[in-house]
Amino acid sequence: MHSYDIQLRRTDIDAQHHLNNVVFAQYLDEARADLLARHDAGGRAWRVVVAGQRLTYRTPLMFRAAPVTVTSAVERVGTSSFTLAHEVRDGENLYLTATSTLVAIDDGAPRPLTDAEREYLVTLTAR
Questions:
Q1: 36 and 48 in contact (C-beta within 8 Å)?
Q2: C-alpha distances in angstroms, 92 versus 6, 46, 68, 95?
Q3: CA-CA distance, 109 to 92, in Å (whole number)?
Q4: Can you spell out the DSSP letters for 73-122?
Q5: Which candidate, 65, 103, 101, 69, places its Cα nearest to that of 87?
Q6: pLDDT value at position 123?
Q7: What percent of the chain has pLDDT over 70?
Q8: I need a labelling partner for 82 at 20 to 30 A (CA). Which of 45, 69, 111, 119 fits?
């Protein structure tokens, strides 16, 4: 499992003082970028596209000084794709659950995951 803390910004808040729904997707993107950057692929950066994403809003997130944590765990590893399960929460509250399916690409087309990428993804499965 991977954890990533995010500090809320005042510009993330809508007119009702809630975190804007679109910003949740940005938070997931930041957490995924960190998750992928932590894998040393011998100088080769991950190239992936988000093929699908489903967000379920659980409770409104109001602006506050304390950060929230995005946790991500690998649910499934396929030939060229993998699915992550995400939660956005603090110690007491669950604000969002989501799944993201990412596809590895090369020259704009899907490519098989390498053995090293698969091994890294397996270390991130939920336990």
A1: yes
A2: 16, 33, 11, 10
A3: 42
A4: EEEEE-SSEEEEEEEEE-SS-EEEEEEEEEEEEETTEE-PPPHHHHHHHH
A5: 69
A6: 92
A7: 96
A8: 69
Could you give the residue ranges of the DSSP H alpha helices within 19-76? 21-37
Quick one: which of 68, 63, 82, 58 has its CA closest to 31?
68
Q: Which long-range contacts (CB under 8 A, 24 or more apart) does 24-30 make?
A: 24/55, 24/57, 24/88, 24/95, 24/96, 24/98, 25/53, 25/55, 27/68, 27/70, 27/88, 28/53, 28/55, 28/70, 28/86, 28/88, 28/98, 28/100, 30/4, 30/6, 30/70
Write out pLDDT tens, residues 15-34: 888 999 899 999 999 999 99
Residue (of 74, 71, 53, 72) closest to 119 by Cα position: 74
